[in-house]
Amino acid sequence: MEVVVVDSDQIDGATRLALRTLWDRAFGDRFSDDDADHAYGGVHVLAREDDRVLGHASAVPRRIRFGDRPWLTVGYVEAVATDPERQREGIGRRTMERLQEEICSRWPVALLSTGRATGFYELLGWERWRGLSYTQAATGVVPDDEHGGLMILRQDPSAVPDLSTSVTCEDRPGDAW
Ligand SMILES: CC(C)(COP(=O)(O)OP(=O)(O)OC[C@H]1O[C@@H](n2cnc3c(N)ncnc32)[C@H](O)[C@@H]1OP(=O)(O)O)[C@@H](O)C(=O)NCCC(=O)NCCS
Asked: I need a surface site. Which of 18, 44, 135, 162 has the fewest CB within 10 A?
């Protein structure tokens, strides 16, 4: 198995189709067209064997506001998945560890939203967000309680010292977080 790093604009049509198949297999009905769109616009890590994509994780830049501090561009992790036939073999860990190297070279912190995989990310150094979350919509700032659990990866804790403050993202089609 090889683990490769590619920017979104280098991903060809065949790989896009293979990724959508992987996400549909791993997430089932939970994965929407908007979720697929959210995965693009940044950097991807692919775990490949022969012509198959067995694992994926990507990170895209997003503007986030922590408390009342100025908006900060962070890495936002999307579409993390391992082929269901190959889970619990370490593929997800290898994929995320490589993505986290890319994150460290690009952004001071990263965020993600997860419903079921909190323990997986905690093993990789992620921390649970403890504060309230909001979305900056056209109508103003609205509370957002739809996502599962927000998590943060901090290279330097002073970049975001307080995990119990409020956190706000910009709205987008589909799930805001
Ligand atoms: C979450 C997911 C990517 C993990 O991939 P994986 O290749 O099976 O993970 P790994 O084998 O590398 O596991 C790494 C470690 O995390 C643990 N782990 C894996 N999945 C876990 C989960 N859902 N919850 C808690 N711990 C988990 C493993 O036990 C392993 O621990 P160990 O190193 O102590 O043995 C995979 O289960 C998946 O695709 N799930 C469906 C899609 C999904 O929910 N993605 C996350 C959305 S945010």
From this structure: 162
